[in-house]
Amino acid sequence: MAAGSRILVVLTSNARRGAEIEGSRVAHELEARGLPAAVVALSGPGDDSTGLPVEVLGHRPLGIETLRGLRKAGRSFDLVVAFGSTTLPACAAALAGTGTPWIYRSIGDPAAWAGGAARRRRTGLQMRRAAAVVALWDGAAEWIRRHYGVGEVTSIPNARRASEFPPATAAERGRAKAERLGNTDPTVALVGALTEEKRPDLAVRIVAGLEHTNLVIAGDGPRRGEVEALGSRLLPGRFLSLGNVTDVRPVYAMADALLLTSRTEGMPGVVIEALMAGVGVAASDVGAIASIHPAIRLVKPEAPLPTWRDAVHSAVSSRPDSTSMDRFDWSAVGDAWFRTLTAHLRPSTRG
Q1: Do residue 103 and residue 55 come from a single domain?
Q2: pLDDT in tens, 173-225
Q3: Overall average pLDDT of the 136-148 stretch
Q4: What percent helix, strand, coil does the chain show, rounded to 5?
Q5: How far is it, in rounded angstroms, from Cα 150 to Cα 163?
Q6: Residue 236's pLDDT is what?
Q7: Helix (H) or strand (E) run with residue 104 in it
Q8: Could you give the angle at the alpha carbon of 124 between the alpha carbons of 119 and 125, nearest 5°?
Q9: How far is residue 245's CA from residue 180's CA, in Å, rounded to a whole number?
Q10: Between the N and C ends of the chain, which has fewer C-beta atoms within 10 Å?
């Protein structure tokens, strides 16, 4: 950890997942604005070369060793940011009595993961110990206030750097499709983890009913083998599975639409990326998705296949205005984090 750091961002693990990458980027943006910041992970394979280059505190997220390490680290900082669900109980326990204020970053849809009455009481108690809670969108912030009794809740969206996702021209898109798919037909992309919650098999069945339409999947997970077998059977000659990709931009370069079939979501970064890249989006009407852009074709998760296909067909034909995504650029979101966190630094340590 950097000497003299004032902000400590705590991640659940050092895995390169959406929330962890986002939390690390927050620290980077604070540094760029002159506010020293460091990042630690509660757990993870510390010697994993594919993980984020951050200090790992223990072997288990809520283990005694981990909590002791977090308590010791927290005393050296002016403010701690608990970034994600498991970091909430960790910081509530480890930082109690240290005098170090901490802020909880809610990374999902609080209504979808609230659970039963006992879990709600426990979560509310932990959130109320934080100096503030930062939600992804205004609707989530209001839900947290109403159901958990948290006094100070603000909303800051997920972010991407718009300059990293320039829209492809029609000619560039055609060349990308011809190179990877062997045709220039309309192409739908599914980007993300191949898990039960994301329902990638539904994406295959949706596109299978759209004539002369390709499906490209970028991602890995427990359902990958099943989904690849289904794609090969239902979409012969128009299905491509890329597995994990380190750079998703070539996927958007050949995509006419992004399809998101999840049962639950917070504010998926892939939707922000696609819209910045000028790619249409058809997505489940869950979490913060409706608040991101009016051009998104929203579908109820339980909708029948024809409804999904209509939404995808419409998304393929759309070209959303990427300039309207400025509020999701790190230039704006980084400023919002800076304002929020500097307001909660311990008064005795402010410069």
Answers
A1: yes
A2: 999 999 999 999 999 999 999 999 999 999 999 999 999 999 999 999 999 99
A3: 96
A4: 40, 20, 40
A5: 36
A6: 97
A7: strand 102-105
A8: 100
A9: 14
A10: C
How far apart CA 248 and CA 192 sit, in angstroms, is 10
For residue 323, what pLDDT band results from cuts at 50, 70 and 90?
confident
H helix runs in 33-183, sequence order:
64-74, 87-94, 117-128, 138-148, 170-181
Domain housing 240: 162-325
Alpha carbon separation from 7 to 10, 30, 44, 74, 241 (Å, rounded)? 10, 9, 21, 9, 40
CA angle 318, 189, 294 (to 5 degrees): 35
46, 14 contact by CB (below 8 A):
yes
- 226 with 320, same domain: the answer is yes
What is the phi/psi pair of residue 329, to 5°?
A: -80, 150
Task: Give the Cα separation of 193 and 175 in Å (integer).
Answer: 27
Same domain, 231 and 340: no
Q: What is the pLDDT of residue 4?
A: 52
Model confidence, pTM: 0.90
Least confident of 24-28, 110-114, 184-188, 266-270: 110-114
What is the DSSP pairing of strand 187-191 with strand 153-155? unpaired
Candidates 221, 244, 216; CA nearest to 231 is 216
What span, in angstroms and rounded, lies between the C-alpha atoms of 151 and 130?
10
Q: Are residues 28 and 134 in the same domain?
A: yes
Q: Locate tokens 């307001």: which residue?
A: 343
Token pair, residue 179, equals: 């190179």
Contacts of 100 (CB under 8 A, 6+ apart): 74, 75, 77, 78, 79, 80, 346
**Calculated CA dihedral for residues 24, 349, 106, 65, nearest 10 degrees:** 70
Number of structural domains the chain divides into: 2
**209 and 229 belong to one structural domain:** yes
- Lowest-confidence segment of 68-77, 185-194, 321-330 by average pLDDT: 321-330
Q: Which of 299, 319, 320, 317 is nearest to 308 (CA)?
A: 299
Mean pLDDT to the nearest integer, 43-61: 81
Same domain, 319 and 337: no
